[in-house]
Amino acid sequence: MKQWIRLTSAQRRQKRIRKKVFGTKERPRLSVFRSINHMSVQLIDDAEGKTLYALSTASPAVKEKVGKNGGNVKGASLLGEALAVLCKEHALSKVVFDRAGCLYHGRVKALAEAARKGGLSF
After folding, report:
1. Which of 25, 40, 74, 96 sits at 20 to 30 Å (Cα–Cα) from 110?
2. Confidence band (pLDDT; 50, 70, 90) for 70?
3. Is residue 11 part of a domain?
4. Strand partners, 96
5. Which of 92, 77, 112 is nearest to 45 (CA)?
6. pLDDT for 58
């Protein structure tokens, strides 16, 4: 007998997105995580199952710029800019965007637009 697991709508969206999105070393998956106070992003190589780079509004490099705005749209856009700079340093220009079940508005949209302005292409 199959055991049924109740999923939230965000978890269902995340499963649906992950079926289609796959990252490689040349074009890693940009995974976004939102919490109430902070946001974090990871560049993931799914072929090897490794995280290449990670950045958060709580990490020391970004925390100086963000200050107490880690959980709002301004903090998300600053994180996107810092992510674009990190990718330029490591010669990455193309990524696959994984919003992880979050709706594409607000902080997720601000992060994506700031990363695109910084030179990343999704």
Report:
1. 25
2. confident
3. no
4. 29
5. 92
6. 92
